[in-house]
Each structure stands twice: as C-alpha cells, then as structure tokens.
Amino acid sequence: MPAQPSRAPRGVRHVRPLSGRAPTAQRMIFGETLRKHREALGLTEKEVARGIGGCSASKISRLESGEHDFKEKDVLCLLDVYQVVDPAERTRLLELSQQANEKGWWEAWRDVAPKELQTYVSLEDIAARIRSYESGQLLGLLQIPDYTRALVKANSLEPGVRTAERIMELRAIRAQRFLNESAAQLICVVDEVTLSRGYGTNPIMRRQIEHLIELAGHERISFRLAPSARLNLPVQIGTTTVFDFAADQLPAIVYVERCNGGLYLQDRQEVDAYERGFDRLMVNSLGSAACLQKLKDYCQKYR
Fold first, then answer.
1. % of the chain exceeding 70 in pLDDT
2. Taking every annotated instance into account, which residue ranges of this chain make up the domain HTH cro/C1-type (predicted)?
3. All domains of the chain, ordered by start, with CATH?
4. Per-residue pLDDT for 16 more than 70?
5. At residue 216, what are phi and psi to the nearest 5 degrees?
6. Contact 238/259 with Cβ under 8 angstroms?
7. CB neighbours of 32 closer than 8 A, spacing ≥ 6?
8. What is the dihedral of CA 169, 174, 178, 180, to 10 degrees?
9. Measured between alpha carbons, how far is residue 142 from residues 102, 186, 199, 222, 225 in Å?
10. 62-91 per-position pLDDT tens digit
11. Mean pLDDT value across residues 88-95
12. Is the pLDDT score of 191 beyond 50?
C-alpha cells in the first residue's frame, strides 16, 4: 500500500505551465521544499527577492511552483537567506535541485506532449493515488493503441499519421509504466457515454472494453460507472483528475480539462471542492460489480 496522501494546508496558488519549462513533479517537490523554508521564517516572496538581490518576487514564485530551472547560484543564495548552514544539508539540497532539473523520460515525445501534458505525466509517475473522471473519452491510462489512434484521427482537424502514432506510443508507454512500475491506486469513474459513443470500429471498441474488463481485476485499479440513464448525476465537475501524493511530498493537485488547455489547481479550498465533487459523482455512480456487468453488456453490443 502507498503511504497516506498528504493533507497539509496550502495557500492560494495555481500552477500555470504556460511559459518556460513545464513544472514537473520533481521540480515542484523541490520548490515545495524551498517554500517551506521561506514560510518557516515568516518571509514573503518579495522579502526573499530583496534578500538575495537582482531577483523578483515572481521568480521566487516560479521557483517554488517548479516553473523555473534551479541554478546552483540561486539555490545557494536561497539557502543563505533561509539560514541553512549545515554543510551536509546544503549538499543534500543542492543534489535535490540538480535532480529536479533532470529531463524526464517523456522528453523524447515533446513534439506531441504540450507543457500541460508533460506536467500531467510527471505527476502520474509519482502519485500515490489517482482519481479520475473523463467525460468525452476513456482515460489515457486505460486506452488500447487502436482506440487512441481512432480518437486522435476523429478529433484532429488535420490528422497526421505520424502525430497519431507518436501520441499512441506515448499513451501506451504511460499505461505500461503504470501497470509495471507504479504503486499508485487508480480510482476511475467511467462515463457510459464513452462506451456507447466510442471510437474506431466495433471490433476496436470490443477489444477496448475487453481490456477494461481485464483491468477491472487489477488490485490497484477500481472502476465505477456514471450511467447515461440516471437522472441528476453530478457530472458538472467535467474532466477532472485528482493527484494525491505520499506524505511530505506534495499536497493534492487537481487537473481540470478546459477547451483551451488544462489548469492545475493547488489552492486548498479549490482542491477540496473538486474532491467533494468527485466523491459525490463516485457515490452516485454504479459500483464495481454493476460497472463490470455493464462492460460485459457493451462487449456483446460491439460483436
């Protein structure tokens, strides 16, 4: 079992990977360490910026949110301001900052992975628990390659064969890594619409649903189903993923899909609101056994 997710309080903060490097999980973790040092001394970002000179409060904010590389000079200046004097601790933190700057395995797919997705994949890699609801398609971790290819082709204005294949490769590797290397729990609310209005051909949808049935028996994966015929389902949270992490890594982070790109939320009140929304949807959806039966029924439909 993974360690209990962190429930530490958090100030108002959004992660917006819109400029510079995408804020990956490792950079966010080191940035969180810097933030804790700053807050332990009761310093504001502006006061820290003044303390090290030649720096802005916005840069301190970007460092803490993982949206900026950690240069050794900057880290040493910050450690001085934060009164970290023990040589062993300074060495440890410098090594962590260097590790945070390392490129992720997904860098080879940057041509088809926008910054929001790079952040998503990095969080997916280290999460202790992932809670997800997708309203228009199946979660990427659950997709078979043929489904992914058909989905990309159907939703691209000018679909390129190479682009579709690259996206398919990346999703397949993510799924393999989750099944073979991760210890995270996945709780997924499947919307029945994604089963009834599928992608590809009947044989592709049948293989996709057979894959879901196989995954339903995995010890770290649990499904619920939001049925199309049920009234008053609280689905207005839209496509949402909640990432929970082991204690002392990161507070919970919510990813919300938008038509013009995703948004990452870390504000405690906003995260709580989405968690409550997800829990309401989960409770009002069909349980694991009923969901499995629905999947079997759809297998027959796509014969």
1. 92
2. 34-90
3. 25-101 (1.10.260.40), 105-301 (3.30.870)
4. no
5. -60, -20
6. no
7. 64, 249, 250
8. 40
9. 28, 10, 14, 12, 14
10. 999 888 889 999 999 999 999 999 999 999
11. 95
12. yes
Q: Phi then psi for 209, rounded to 5 degrees? A: -70, -35
Overall residue count recorded for the chain in this entry: 303
User: Two tokens at 229?
Assistant: 């015929």
Q: Cα separation of 158 and 176, whole Å?
A: 29
Structure tokens belonging to residue 97: 């900052």
Contact 221, 288 (CB under 8 A): no
CA atoms within 13 A on the CB side of 51: 19
Residue 202, judged by CB atoms within 10 A of its CB (0-12, 13-18, 19+), counts as exposed
- pTM of the full structure: 0.87
The predicted-structure confidence for 214-239, as pLDDT tens digits, reads as follows 999 999 999 999 999 999 999 999 99
Structure tokens at 51: 């303390």
Would you state the pLDDT for residue 20?
58
Confirm if 298 and 209 have CB atoms less than 8 A apart.
Answer: yes
Residue-wise pLDDT for 280-303, tens only, equals 999 999 999 999 999 999 999 998
Q: Which of 54, 21, 51, 28 is nearest to 251 (CA)?
A: 28
Contact 202, 219 (CB under 8 A): no
- The answer for residues whose C-beta is within 8 angstroms of residue 293's C-beta and 6 or more apart is none
